[in-house]
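Q: what sequence does this backbone want?
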């Protein structure tokens, strides 16, 4: 199975702790040993936010701030590559074709951010779509997708399973609220819906949770599962266009 794993920066290296990075490298190596092709997209986390806030205080504009974030995601990606050693491509891929080529060579392709205005959530979805991944896993600090922000609403209910279209419906109002924390961003949700892609959103604090989700399907997060009828309608529309 071809899998793309999106690892939040605050999950991979919350305090630049080498042990957590090494644990994630071990989890990815276990997936490879199980016969899976693996691509990874790494986020920036709290370190990126610190750089961005400092740069904002110094007068940087929004594009420049995004560049600070992208740079930090690629540093985090290099940390993971260092832990993976020869298992991974030698440097973070900066183009989707480059990442796909690494997978074809049997390497773990690791990416950070790509362009200003695009989160690593969306990069992971685009990467997964570009290589026809069988599964996209979001390893986040949240334990799934809820009908409201569980940090604000104590009555928020977690979805065990939902369709990609339902994911878009849930994320859309969250994306409009200042300060809201959606489990994945709106563009990522739309890309997942467009591709009819299977995805899992789970708590990635323990890297072994990713292994369990991929290898055995066991997890406590949210399964985003395409509906066959929706996929057929999408394919028919593409043929007619």
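A:
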């Amino acid at each position: 199975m071809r899998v793309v794993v999106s690892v939040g920066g605050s999950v991979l290296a919350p305090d630049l702790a080498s042990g957590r990075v090494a644990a994630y490298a071990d989890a990815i190596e276990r997936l490879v040993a199980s016969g899976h092709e693996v691509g990874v997209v790494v986020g920036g986390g709290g370190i990126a936010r610190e750089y961005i806030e400092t740069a904002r205080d110094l007068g940087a504009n929004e594009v420049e701030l995004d560049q600070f974030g992208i740079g930090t995601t690629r540093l985090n990606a290099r940390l993971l590559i260092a832990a993976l050693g020869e298992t991974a491509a030698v440097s973070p891929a900066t183009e989707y074709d480059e990442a796909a080529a690494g997978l074809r060579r049997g390497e773990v392709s690791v990416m950070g951010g790509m362009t200003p205005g695009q989160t690593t959530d969306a990069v992971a979805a685009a990467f997964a779509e570009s290589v026809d991944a069988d599964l996209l896993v979001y390893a986040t600090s949240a334990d799934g997708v809820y009908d409201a922000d569980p940090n604000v609403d104590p009555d928020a209910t977690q979805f065990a399973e939902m369709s990609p279209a339902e994911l878009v419906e849930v994320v859309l109002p969250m994306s409009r609220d200042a300060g809201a924390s959606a489990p994945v961003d709106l563009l990522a949700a739309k890309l997942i819906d467009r591709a009819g892609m299977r995805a899992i959103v789970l708590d990635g604090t323990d890297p072994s949770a990713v292994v369990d989700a991929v290898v055995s399907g066991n997890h406590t997060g949210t399964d985003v599962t395409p509906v066959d009828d929706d996929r057929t309608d999408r394919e028919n529309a593409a043929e007619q266009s």
